[in-house]
Amino acid sequence: MHRLAVSRARHLGLRATLLLASAVVALDLASLAAVKAAPPAAGVADSGAARVRIEATDDGYHAWADNPLPGPIEVRLRYRQRHNTVASPALPARATIPTDGSTVVAVFRAADPSGAVDFDLILDSVPGNPSAQPRDVTYLLPLTKDTPIAIDQGFAGSFSHDDDENRYAIDFAVPVGTAVLAARDGVVMQVIDHHLDALRNNPAQHRGAGPADKLLRNTNHIRILHDDGSMAVYAHLQQGGAVAKPGQRVRTGQHIGWSGNTGFSTGPHLHFAVQVNRGMRLVSLPFRMEGVEAETPH
Ligand SMILES: [Zn+2]
To answer: Where does the record locate the signal sequence feature (predicted)?
Structure first.
């Protein structure tokens, strides 16, 4: 999950509001207080990248959430703090935002019109539409036929496949630079491939009790949206290892990237999982894959 903390929206009360009416308040998005990490979890957690922006209108401050991704996301808007502020709907408020879309999540106004409105917001986002109805399909192996198949960790693997997001993931032990193929048709929703290799990057922290969330943020991955709203995650790609681009439609078997060893990883492998958004949280689904028996816990 992605959290975006927006710095203060502080205004001078009703009079100022009226003066600002119909003007877009240029909140200082550049000085965002913090982008907090997702809670510790193995594999790939985050993935949203929604932004919130405030617009002053006659009927209050509209908090818009913008979705820059080529796929739907769900957002939750909440307060970090507030004084003399009421929201409609009350926070926390959720909304589902379509591909490349924007939605007003809540409208704010002064509880006491003679006083100043003052609020800080945090926007959490999770990729995928929470009402997705995944179909039962057979996935293709995300590797070429001549790649020797060794599975490091299967469903419910005790090393890192022990949370909802990753329970039904498979780790294929493959050398860095192995071609990764799309296991199912879809649209590339997110590509992150700028991180350095995990071991070269930060071996001590990687092995130790360091914050898993920090490591997660260093996991290169591709997220592909399927036509039923489920998503496949191909993770630990090497730096610069994405061949497919955001928004691109890919076919089963198409070359989408190169495997690596980035993020929370103790050795080169490809982490593959099918996920759905189950209401502000990603949940991995059991799946069938041609030529792979992944039912046995590691
Ligand atoms: Zn894994």
So the answer is: 1-37
